[in-house]
Design goal:
The chain is an alpha/beta fold. The protein folds into 2 domains: 113 residues, Rossmann fold, CATH 3.40.50.150; 96 residues. It is built from 6 helices and 8 strands, in the order βαβββαββααβααβ. Strands 3-2-1-4-5 form a 5-stranded parallel β-sheet, with helices on both faces. Strands 6-8-7 form a 3-stranded antiparallel β-sheet. The protein is globular and about 50 Å long. InterPro entries: SAM-dependent_MTases_sf. This is Methyltransferase domain-containing protein.
Length: 243
């Protein structure tokens, strides 16, 4: 994602003396580590349900096991900046998450969401409804609704932030290509990274969701994903989705 937004860690106009930062759903912790290195005077906290972060950390960073959907236990208005990324299909109650972000960011602070909307499209007709990539997106959205973690939620984030009380809310919609087909060097690099994500990581994202929410067998999922991976590498299919 950082490559797509110009190799930046964030969009928000943060001051150089930002003091306290929360990274929700930190995952491997790579964003939090990069942020802590960039802002050595800031206290950075990364939270996630799983402790998969590295042991060697910048001295101003710590990780905590926590559920972003549970009631937060920090002091209200505790953070200058709250960062969220890649929560798609992980959150059941988005309005509550947004409200807690509002309650726990300082007046004048910033909250930022970077979310994917993985419905595959093309502008030149090279991707059709018959393609496995398109069918994966449709099935993924249907499964997420059945599972209670609606992947369409990012579409409503701006309105939910306004309703929670945020002001100066900006929404940036970007195209994230899949594959090496873009002519622009930066987009080509992003497309290659996303191809790796699609080929290496799509099984973990799909298998549980499709078997539990759509009733597919594991064998059906793997046969289907073989075709999805093939199309993700096909330079003749100019697919993308929105971030």
């Amino acid at each position: 994602m950082s490559h797509l937004i110009g190799d930046r860690l964030f969009w928000a106009p943060l001051r150089s003396d930002v003091q306290k930062v929360l990274d929700l759903g930190t995952g491997t912790g790579i964003w939090a580590i990069d942020f802590a290195d960039t802002f050595p005077s800031a206290e950075v906290i990364g939270t996630d349900l799983s402790a998969i972060q590295p042991n060697w950390l910048p001295p101003n960073l710590r990780f905590e096991i926590d559920d972003a959907e549970a009631d937060w236990t920090w002091e209200p208005s505790a953070f200058d900046y709250i960062h969220n990324r890649n929560f798609v299909c992980a959150i059941r109650n988005w309005p509550k998450l947004v409200r807690q972000c509002f309650d726990f960011v300082k007046p004048g602070g910033w909250c930022e969401f970077h979310e994917k909307h993985p419905w595959f499209l093309s502008d030149d007709g090279t991707l059709s409804e018959d393609h496995a990539l398109y069918k994966w997106g449709k099935n993924f959205f249907d499964a997420s609704v059945n599972f209670g973690t609606d992947a369409r939620a990012p579409q409503f984030l701006k309105q939910q932030m306004l309703e929670a009380g945020f002001v100066n809310v900006e929404q940036h919609i970007l195209k994230l290509p899949v594959g090496s087909w873009p002519k622009d060097p930066r987009l080509k690099r992003c497309g290659l990274f996303e191809t790796v994500n699609m080929t290496d990581g799509i099984s973990g994202l799909t298998t549980m969701l499709f078997t539990r929410a759509l009733g597919w067998t594991r064998e059906e999922v793997e046969v289907f994903l073989t075709e999805v991976r093939k199309e993700a590498k096909d330079r003749h299919i100019h697919s993308y989705y929105h971030l």
